[in-house]
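User: I'm putting together a teaching handout on how multi-component assemblies are represented. Below are the sequence lines for each component of a complex, exactly as they appear in our records. Could you produce the 3D structure of the whole assembly as structure tokens, so the students can see both representations side by side? Please keep the chain order the same as the input.
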Amino acid sequence: MPTTTRVLIIDDHPLFRRGVSQLLGLADGFEIVGEAASGQEGIELAKRLDPDLILLDLNMKGMNGLETLRTMRDLEIDARIILVTVSDAPEDLIAAIRSGADGYILKDNDPDDILKLIDSAMHGKTAISPELTSLLATALREESLVEQRSQASLTERETAILKCLAGGMSNKLIARELDIMESTVKVHIRNLLKKLKFRSRVEAAVWAVANQIH
Amino acid sequence: MPTTTRVLIIDDHPLFRRGVSQLLGLADGFEIVGEAASGQEGIELAKRLDPDLILLDLNMKGMNGLETLRTMRDLEIDARIILVTVSDAPEDLIAAIRSGADGYILKDNDPDDILKLIDSAMHGKTAISPELTSLLATALREESLVEQRSQASLTERETAILKCLAGGMSNKLIARELDIMESTVKVHIRNLLKKLKFRSRVEAAVWAVANQIH
DNA sequence: TGCGATCTACCCCTTAATAGGTAGTACCTT
DNA sequence: AAGGTACTACCTATTAAGGGGTAGATCGCA
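Assistant: Of course. Below is the structure of the complete assembly, with chains in the same order as your input.
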């Protein structure tokens, strides 16, 4: 039983709304039940209309797309929500997915591709413009690295040496500070770089400083 | 005309107050005009008694010595104020001098030495326990370095490379990022280290991160 | 008692980084 | 036109750092 998908469009650009309307109008199974020019208005309409799908612009003046998305999820609006945007910034993508978006589509995608993505989102998948998947992968890898690093259990000595690194010290200075041979310092540094998956002492030092390992 | 120096003691330890009283009582030219067991009480007494010298304990419960000192300076109490403390922490010393202390004396100094320090403070000098002067020098040197570094005018390229350093990148990666030869990156790094007086890229990176050079 | 972890310290070797130099090009200012 | 600055790129050299290995001493735990 292929019922029609009831769609709400939230975007402060009238032209874009018209474009989407037309695109979905030409396709089968979509019905535009509402359009909103702002986040607030969009939330009101979403509550009243209970649409199946919400296409939400990320870059709106006033309440932006992310805030709108979070508010709607807080209100337990259970429509599929796809962010539509011109931003290919990794942080926007990550934030959107984190905030419960079911899709993240670039406006400059081919209309056919957009339709396919919307379709897959309606089938329970998270629809992301293909050119962004590598960004997502990179981000996730980095995040898992951060996780690993925060959890990684350094030994007492390794922690002490990481603190020295965060102070910008050389192996020679660290050796003097901890009163051990420089060769031993090297061993510890090698081990801690391996444990934390850093490629150099500089990466380790920068990370330690940024994460206040003092 | 050697008039007597009218002294106010602010310390929450009665025994210490008594000790100081005795010390100054044995010496010539001092008269204890008041004792206070807290910062608040001390400020009140200082306003009422207008002493020539205030001996102020740094580590008091409630309003601590530094706060008391600042409040008194705000109130334009013009007595010579000497902080007396057990703390040899550089930051305490620096903060005290910054806040307008005329002296900073360690409690475990020899009584004779304390008298001499008080005396020199009464003659317009800033009296600091000798074992702390090197701390002061180091701190000042570091501070001036920070000044220099903040002011040092890096070129556009050097700034770009410092940002890369703050990202933990190697010369090879920086070269790729900025699309220049690695040999050129080395030149810029050398110049940047010299300008900012760093001894290694790690020091530079750590500093850049800590000072939010992003 | 033996196993594993940690800390120590060395070996070898390769690569990265630092310190000094010269030098060409471009641009701006005097 | 001359000088200064920035950027580029190379040369030399030494030192620092990283990656691999072995190995002894100590400690706690199974």
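A couple of points students might notice: Chain A has ten helices and six strands. The first strand of chain A starts at residue 5 and ends at 10.
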